[in-house]
Each structure stands twice: as C-alpha cells, then as structure tokens.
C-alpha cells in the first residue's frame, strides 16, 4: 500500500532515533527531502502526498548508510553554515557551528572600520568561512586559499552557489611562504588542521573514517600549522591588520603565545557557546 511522505519521514525519524542519532528529527527531514529530490520547503508542503515504492527504497538505502556512520552531510552533499548552503564532499571537512564563532569575531572586528576589507581565508576547505564573510560584507574582497585541488573545486562551487562575485580561489600551501602575487590583506582568518597526530585514532568514527585526515592532522602537538602561518604569512598583513584562528580545545594559550612572540598586539581568545576558547586573534 502506498505511503505518504509524512509516513516515511516519521518512520525514518524513528529509525534514526533508535540508531542513536542525536539530531534524528532534523536528519530525517533532510534525508527524506533529499531522497525525494525536493527542497525542505517543498517537502514539507507535500507531506500529505502519496509516494512510490521506489522512493521508499531510496530512503531505506540512505538510512542504512547513515546508520553505518556516514555523516549526513556527505550523503546529501550539502550542509548549512551561517545561513548559507555549502556543498561538501569527503574531500573537505563538514562545516560546524563552532566555526561560526570565527566568522562572528571577524565581522565584529571589521564593523564600522573596514567594510571593504581584503580578507584571506587560509586553509579554506569548503570555503564556508570565506563565503559567509563575503555574504555579510558584500564590499569586501575575499581570497580563499588551500593546497588541495579538490577542496578548491568545492570552494569554487560554493562561490558560484552563493553568487559571490568578489571572491577568488587560489592554490597555496599554508606551511610555506605565500605566493608572490597574492597581495596584502586587512584580515587573515584560518581554521587549519589542529588535531595532534596521536589523537586522530581517538576521534569519533564518523570523523576519523569519513572526513579528510589531511584537514585534521596538525602534527605532533597540533600546532604545526599555527607556527607556520604566524612565521610565513604575517608578512602579507597590512598595518593594523588582524590574524584570527580557530583553535582546538586547550590550544588557546599556546597559539596566543605564538602571536605575542611574533609582535601581535591585543592578543585575545573568544569563547564559543560551550565556554571553550575557540578563536584566537591578534593585531599587527
């Protein structure tokens, strides 16, 4: 007997809840809408409509992938960050709410001072940070840089998806000196790899087994990228320019010391919603 979209959504929600998925209501809605090829709005509008056996089978196949641990963002190929749709693949990290603190810190720093700033998103991955800043600061000029060609392709897709005309993507290694042609910036933001190498195996399987390890591994103590960026990239900051990092739990003090040692002023840490010092910032 045919079932409605609502019946299958409720069944998916119950399955995810029983499987221990924390955000089972949201994930069931997103998964069911994706299986139907509908936007979330269209899916909710059509809840009372009957669907097909083929649709039911698609939902079941997607549920099995999710219950095996595959992140929903990779299953549906998209995730929301700072209110924007961001395409994701296993070549880039899934955007997280913690990283929105970095965006908010950057916006506060530039508000009323440099709305047309030139901003570098270093180790950009999916480009979620740069896209969010470009959306909130339409007069700003954004450069998104990463060493991974596959990540840069995703970044370019997200620039196009969010219709941003003042943003460019280029290849650059954060561990090396900047390309000569990159220019100078009012602000550098970076969410670099920061998980200590020995901790990789202790990560949740949904991260360890699916997300790109190269975007996670921060070296022996997790600080390899911070050291390199402070050492090599400070030279492309303009006078009074700012450098902002997302940092891992318990890393704020070490990263703040790196900034102070390089001559940065006003070095400070910003806490996330859980009280963790999540962003470290300093000004030349």
Feature tags:
alpha/beta, 9 strands, Rossmann fold, 2 domains, 7-stranded mixed beta sheet, two-stranded antiparallel sheet, about 280 residues, Helicase, Ruva Protein, domain 3
Q: Distance between termini? A: 68 Å
CATH C-level class of the largest domain:
Alpha Beta
Computed over alpha carbons, the radius of gyration is: 21 Å
CATH architecture of the largest domain: 3-Layer(aba) Sandwich
Structural class: alpha/beta
In the sheet with the most strands, the strands line up as 5-4-3-6-7-9-8
User: What's the helical proportion of residues?
Assistant: 25-40%
Give the strand tally: 9
> What is the CATH fold-level name of the largest domain?
Rossmann fold
Number of helices: 11
- Strand portion: 15-25%
How do the SSEs run, as a string of H and E? HHHHHEEHEHEHEEHHEHEE
Give the uncertain stretches in residue-range form: none
Overall outline: elongated
Number of domains: 2
